[in-house]
Amino acid sequence: MMHFVEVVIPEVAGAFHYHLPDHLGAPLTPGMRVLVPFGRRQCIAFFVRNIARPDVAITKPVLSLIDEVSLFTPERFTFFVWLADYYGQALGPVLSVGCPHQKPVVRSFYHLTPLGAEADHIGAGLSLASALRKKPLLKQALKKMGVSPRTLSAMRQQGFIEERWEVKWRKQRKPAPGALLPYIKMAESVQKKIPVLNPQQQSAADEINQALKLQTFAPFLLHGVTGSGKTEVYLAVIASALEQGRGAMLLLPEIALTPQIVARFYAQFRDTIALFHSGLSDWARNDAWWRVHARSARLVIGVRSALFSPISNLGVIIVDEEHEGSYAQEERLYYHARDAALVLARASGAVAVLGSATPSFESFHNVKKGKYRLLSLPTRVDARPLPKIHLVDLRKKEDWVQPYFTCHLVEAIKNRLELGKQIILFINRRGFSPSLVCGDCGYLPLCVQCSVSLTYHRRGTYLGCHYCGFQVVPPTQCPKCSGIRLMPLGLGTEQVEEVVKTLFPTARVARMDRDAVQGTDKQQTLLMQMAAGEIDILVGTQMIAKGHDFPGVTLVGVLCADLSLAFPDFRASERMFQVLTQVTGRAGRGEEPGEAIIQTFQPQNENIQAALRQNYVEFYEREIKLREEGRYPPLLQLILIVLRHQNEDLVITQAKRLGLYIKEAMKGIALLGPVPAPLTRLRGFYRYQILLKGQTRRVMMATVAQAMKRWTERRGVVVEVHINPQNFV
Hints:
Elements lengths: L2 E6 L6 E6 L12 E6 L2 E11 L12 E2 L8 H13 L4 H6 L7 E9 L1 H5 L7 H9 L2 E2 H7 L3 H9 L3 E9 L11 H7 L11 H16 L3 E7 L5 H14 L3 E5 L7 H11 L3 E4 L5 H12 L5 E4 L11 E7 L7 E2 L5 E2 H12 L2 E6 L4 H8 L4 E5 L10 E6 L6 E3 L2 E2 H12 L3 E5 L8 E4 L16 E3 L4 E3 L6 E2 L13 E4 L3 H11 L5 E4 L7 H12 L5 E4 L12 E6 L13 H13 L10 E6 L5 H8 L2 H15 L6 E9 L2 H18 L4 E13 L2 E10 L2 H14 L7 E6 L6
Parallel strand pairs: 9-16, 9-17, 10-12, 10-13, 11-12, 13-16, 18-30, 21-28, 21-29, 27-28, 29-30
Antiparallel strand pairs: 1-2, 1-4, 3-4, 3-5, 6-7, 6-8, 14-15, 19-20, 22-26, 23-24, 24-25, 31-33, 31-34, 32-33
Helix pairs in contact: 1-12, 7-10, 8-9, 17-18, 20-21
């Protein structure tokens, strides 16, 4: 009786049916890799399940078993199946991210069959049979022997020989230095002893550890003000999990931006750590993967992709700064690492800890509904005060010393420099200025592929698009009116850096944004210099607000808080509150008290006032009522469908057609659109979107699937489906 199996292929959507030859009759477990013929090539596939009846009349054979056992534990395989189902992704590509990044070498061998070994007369294939009696031979070796394709084909048809396949992995050159080397060096300067927790920290750690002992799923939200010592709680909880013989995982929003945290964990746990992030070489990533798989590394630290590491017997997953938007993966494989971490914890019977000074509304709403247990750290360690925050009204132009530099801010910077203290200046825009404008006709240079103006970078003397990377030399005269009064419009980090150097010529000034610190090494070097007190003033974007602990910083200046409100997104107020709270929280984390100056054109804005008072609960209670009125998450589910094509008329027509199919299928779902996406043209593609609102994701996805089945003539229009998207550009 023929044995049929269902497999999925990383490069292709859908599932496919094959039969398993007798000589490959080993029992298969879900997630095992096999080699299958697919079209004219051979592909690595994942075994999913055995089936009684295939969906095709004639099945092809599985060529080879690659793994002796599955690379996935049952709970991990269940997690990956959920990930594909929840986010509407093909299972093959999803499973592939959970495997080591190895390059396969596929080879076929010819074997002599038992019939061929016993045959008295093989004819023209006699020399081949003699050679195969000694050992199987590669197809290339047969060519060198002069075996003709006709002879080979005849012997196969007679059943004298058969072709078998194997997959080997190319060896990768070991890089130097190791991935953990920068953190090993930093670990020498951080605390090596297990920290002594204060009563608030101890209470939080005790409650989490009690749940750890029960070995059942338990979700916590650790809400601690900036500087309250959440990291110390993480260290204590992870130590408890490892003592129990269980694994632990710490997710960080951007590992290159938090070297101090990684160094602290390395100081305590040393070689138990495996690091996962995009800056690793293939060798380093695979080395970490196999160390975790072999259980020689029991603590995984990394960005969102660390979720896919092969950790087993998981005890605790910690998502630090769980509100951060970088946990959302919105290209190729769509998922949100925070939400996925909770599902992995449930599947593993593990504890999940979400930590933040400014929790996402989704997480705090789950606390209110009783789904998560709230743990609070309401004060800073050692009773250090939160920074004093002052609002400065930017509408009073008479107080300006330079654009966006008021007398109040300049004087505060001067005083801190005289005291030998450090300063952080925050502006939520990179480049010299957002654009270059013609002073005669108002012309703005636009990207040739995206519907945005080009950002002016004076240092590199170019206009660049931050979406597609397009660059061009700035014009010397206006292409529209031939005028020569081309001038920067607005403010960016480069311009701020330039002004600071002019106002404070003796200060050591550095800039931290995507343009200034491209690459993990540059980021870590700059942060280490800042931690060592080698920088007086650090100018930057949101990169400087993410969990850094610089004891020498006693002043933070926000040059224009209003920039964070100027986005077409219902989360704009939430993000503004978060970034203001986070960046002002960088001040006063050492012995000296801190101060923050928030400059704004809207000093009476309720959201800015809430950030001034640093009262998260007050902000949440007011903002959640607006979400309820507007019917937005976390009270409802959203599905964003984005369609794109290089022909705008075509994508409009197809978006309308898909929208009509959805309307005809939906019940209890609100549909908005189709409308142009906020960034209508991106990388040469026109983009239109449809937004669905409803109570149940599964019902909404079923509606979308039904409409997609009817939408057969797509004419090359690409569609993306985002579940509860974090961005609407």
